[in-house]
Amino acid sequence: MSGRHSMENMLQFLKLVGQLKQVPRKGWVYRHVKHPESVSDHMYRMSVMALTIQDRGVNKERCMKLALVHDLAECIVGDIAPADNISKAEKHRREKEAMVHITGLLSEDLHKELYQLWEEYETQSSPEAKLVKELDQLEMILQAHEYEELEGTPGRLQEFFSSTEGRFHHPEVLALARSLNEERAHHIGKQGEASLGQATNQDSHVTHNFITSL
Predict the structure, then answer these.
(1) What are the structural domain ranges in the chain?
(2) What is d(CA 129, CA 69) in angstroms, rounded to the nearest whole number?
(3) Coil, strand, or helix at residue 153?
(4) Strands (E), the chain
(5) How confident is residue 202, by pLDDT bands cut at 50, 70 and 90?
(6) Residue 157 carries which DSSP code?
(7) Tell me: the pLDDT tens digits for 81-110?
(8) Which InterPro entries match (predicted)?
């Protein structure tokens, strides 16, 4: 492959990657979240999460690479959510086809590396892939909590939290999830107290009006 042709292909590859900035995460779209994050947003924070892992028993650099590559196919196929009623086999087929095309734009070494990273994540065939899968779920519920805060609707996105029950095993992920759930429970509790106080005030106002009308 000539140098010029190689750079043309690399440019096309980078433009495809850039499309991830325009692909919204479907779960938020279906729950009518205003200004839902993009797939690119999600992958970036996952990569930062991987960067901050302290566990020396896993390859941190590989975790970061897995986080950057795991949803790459979505620049072509979009974010396929469970609510789309597409089977796992069909989802995998579409994403595999997309990854073959995307990585085919790269040099042989890069093509092999990126495709193998994606395949490793898909098959969950390494400790790093398993950890990054947990980071994927953790990033999702952290984002759900942030949307609840932004909207002032604590607890509205509970189904995202419920979907992760029993799926966290790594000590650092468990600790972060515990901290997140404690903060969220506190916010839900405060909202409940505020609602109760508002209802009490309304009841008092109605009672006052009733008494003064006698």
Answers:
(1) 1-204
(2) 11
(3) coil
(4) none
(5) low
(6) T
(7) 988 999 999 999 999 999 999 999 999 999
(8) HD/PDEase_dom, HD_domain, YfbR/HDDC2
- The predicted model scores a pTM of 0.88
44-73: per-residue pLDDT in tens?
Answer: 999 999 999 999 999 999 999 999 999 999
- The C-alpha atoms of residue 202 and residue 207 are separated, in whole angstroms, by 9
Quick one: angle between helices 171-212 and 127-151, nearest 10?
Answer: 20
How confident is residue 208, by pLDDT bands cut at 50, 70 and 90?
very low
| CB-side neighbour CA atoms (13 Å) of 37 | 16
The pair of structure tokens assigned to 130 is 């398993």
User: Quick one: fold of 1-204?
Assistant: Hypothetical protein af1432 (1.10.3210)
Give the pair of three-digit tokens for residue 184.
């969220």
Q: How far apart are CA 117 and CA 61, in angstroms?
A: 12
At residue 38, the 3 state secondary structure works out as: strand
DSSP bridge pairs for 24: 38
CA distance 128 to 121: 8
- Rounded CA separation 51/64 (Å): 6
- Other Cβ atoms less than 10 A from the Cβ of 99: the count is 22
Under a CB-based contact definition with an 8 Å cutoff, are residues 43 and 68 in contact?
yes
